[in-house]
Design brief:
heterodimer, A: 3-stranded antiparallel beta sheet, 5 helices, about 20% strand, B: alpha/beta, 7-stranded mixed beta sheet, about 40% helix
Chain lengths: ~140, ~425
């Protein structure tokens, strides 16, 4: 049995949660893992600074897809400031698998895209105000 | 000094005996060993190379081409002897044509800046191919942007071969100043017909540069006979250290070029406002060179000569055929590139829709090291409609047993993602 590709990871990869796109959406963001060219796009709906709906799409490896799938479950219904404060170590813990340094970028691609999307949204909402920094 | 010239204990190519000369590949105390199938990215280094470099620093180290004391003379001798080994390996008589650089990328950039700035201008064409490594694309993008010249491309056909009719058509315009192609594709494994391309380019009055990063480690190459204008390679893919590489250039071409980097060692006389240049090869070797890396490069060339480049090519071909035939039998496995007889020891592939990184991670669980990604050939992957692929590459220390491990590993990938 693989240490990395446990059943939970493979389940999320085969049937990812919150997979697809949202139309309309309040924020959308897409980014690429330069190592392999994988792309993840995340669409979200936001009400009163609460993330109410989330969907992701794109092409990725099992680790990035499973990690993003798990992430979407965790952040749905959460306030934006708490999502921006979500620590990468917490997501890696949540995955529960030994991620090697070479694969950390895969595991964190979804979180990076989500935070960048919320950051962009916050800047649009408060063009002159202080906004959260991306801390991944 | 014996260390530098000591012959390895190999007379015929026995991959197991060779493997035992490579510290990284020897089994650890628990009997485990890495199945290293990523030599196209960087080869491992044999004891003789490591010992030669260690010997240099322990016994001969001083700055080169400067001191008059005995130690400095030994350092200079070691550096010059390394160049002689490299020249011998490539059957080059005039050692002034061997410029020691850091790697293939630096060699190509040297040509792109020095030759490119002096010889390219608006209306001129630089022809390269769709199967180049980024290191033989990006320098020409920058050079053509600087000079106003234009890039054109030789396309890759369904069999992973270059469409030489494209080259013919470009050359027929009379505007081509340089043809820059790889000797062997690092993704498809295609061995390109460099003799033909050299002849075609030179008949049309164009210069020809060959990126030999994937050619030099794997076959016998006679650069004087090939008659190419420039040939670039890296030591680290041919049993030598990282940080050493070669630019071969024809003497009359190199002499007509302005220097690349300015500084110590590359000058004849220096005034406050102007200077004159040293003779070849020093003209293109500014600053203190990485002497130990050069010594390691020379030792690697001597080592490969001892193994025998004909034997190297035959061994790799047999091993690649052994792997290729078994991989074709695996369900959903797709191999990119030409037939096994037209390729070097490189097999890039995908298994169904399993992501290459997942394939590589699963193989890594079985201590099998393969490359996953775009292999610095994004345009070629785009042409093949791929984001990434898995690549297994073979070298002198790989055995049929390593291939068997790979095949078992690929079956394991199927069971996990089945």
């Amino acid at each position: 049995m693989s240490d990395l590709y446990r059943e939970q990871i493979l389940d999320h990869y085969r049937t990812p949660h919150n997979h697809g796109t949202l139309d309309p959406h309040d924020a959308t963001y897409e980014d690429t893992n330069p190592l392999c060219g994988d792309k993840i796009r995340i669409d979200v709906r936001i009400e009163d600074n609460i993330l109410t709906e989330i969907a992701f799409s794109g092409r990725g490896c099992a680790i990035s897809v499973a990690s993003t799938s798990i992430l979407t479950d965790l952040v749905k219904g959460e306030p934006l400031d708490e999502i921006m404060a979500f620590d990468k170590e917490d997501l890696l813990d949540e995955l529960g698998i030994p991620i090697s340094p070479a694969r950390v970028k895969c595991a964190l691609l979804g979180l990076h895209v989500l935070k960048a999307g919320i950051d962009q949204y916050s800047r649009e909402q408060h063009p002159t105000g202080n906004v959260e920094q991306i801390s991944d | 000094m014996e260390n530098l010239t000591r012959a390895p204990d190999v007379t015929t190519l026995d991959p197991i005996a060779i493997r035992n000369q490579f510290p990284v590949l020897r089994p650890d105390s628990t009997g485990k060993r890495v199945i290293f199938l990523d030599s196209a990215a960087s080869s491992q280094k044999p004891d003789v190379v490591l010992e030669a470099m260690d010997y240099y620093y322990r016994n001969d180290n001083a700055n080169v081409h400067r001191g008059v004391y005995a130690l400095a003379e030994r350092a200079t001798e070691a550096y010059d002897r390394a160049r002689s080994s490299v020249a011998r390996f490539f059957s080059v008589v005039d050692e002034g044509q061997i410029i020691l650089v850091r790697n293939t990328t630096e060699a190509i950039n040297l040509v792109a800046y020095s030759w490119g700035n002096a010889n390219l201008g608006p209306g001129d064409l630089v022809v390269t191919t769709e199967m180049e490594h980024h290191s033989n694309l990006v320098p020409w993008q920058l050079a053509t942007q600087r000079t106003g010249a234009t890039m054109e491309f030789i396309s890759v056909d369904e069999q992973g071969q270059l469409n030489l009719t494209d080259l013919e058509q470009h050359l027929a315009t009379g505007k081509v100043k340089l043809v820059a192609i790889n000797h062997v594709s690092n993704m498809l494994g295609t061995i390109n017909p460099v003799e033909t391309v050299v002849e075609m380019a030179q008949n049309a009055g164009a210069r020809i540069l060959i990126d030999g990063a994937q050619g030099a480690p794997h076959m016998s190459i006679n650069l004087d006979a090939l008659g190419v204008d420039f040939y670039a390679c890296s030591a680290h893919k041919m049993c030598g250290p990282m940080g050493a590489g070669m630019l071969y250039g024809k003497r009359e071409v190199l002499e007509a070029m302005p220097p690349f980097l300015g500084g110590g060692d590359m000058i004849r006389t220096v005034g406050l406002r102007e200077s004159t240049w040293a003779d070849l090869p020093s003209k293109f070797e500014a600053g203190t060179p990485s002497v130990a890396d050069a010594v390691g490069f020379g030792a690697a060339c001597d080592y490969l000569t001892q193994v025998g480049m004909q034997a190297v090519a035959e061994h790799e071909h047999a091993l690649t055929a052994y792997a290729y035939e078994q991989m074709l039998e695996l369900p959903e496995l797709v191999i990119y590139g030409p037939s096994v007889d037209e390729r070097a020891g490189v097999i890039s592939f995908n298994i169904g829709d399993v992501h290459p990184h997942d394939v590589a991670s699963l193989l890594d669980e079985h201590a099998i090291a393969v490359r996953a990604g775009h292999h610095c050939t994004q345009p070629l992957h785009a042409k093949l409609d791929l984001t990434a692929s898995v690549r297994a590459s073979f070298y002198i220390y790989n055995s049929k047993e390593d291939v068997d491990h790979l095949i078992d590993g690929l079956r394991y990938v199927r069971t996990v993602f089945g």
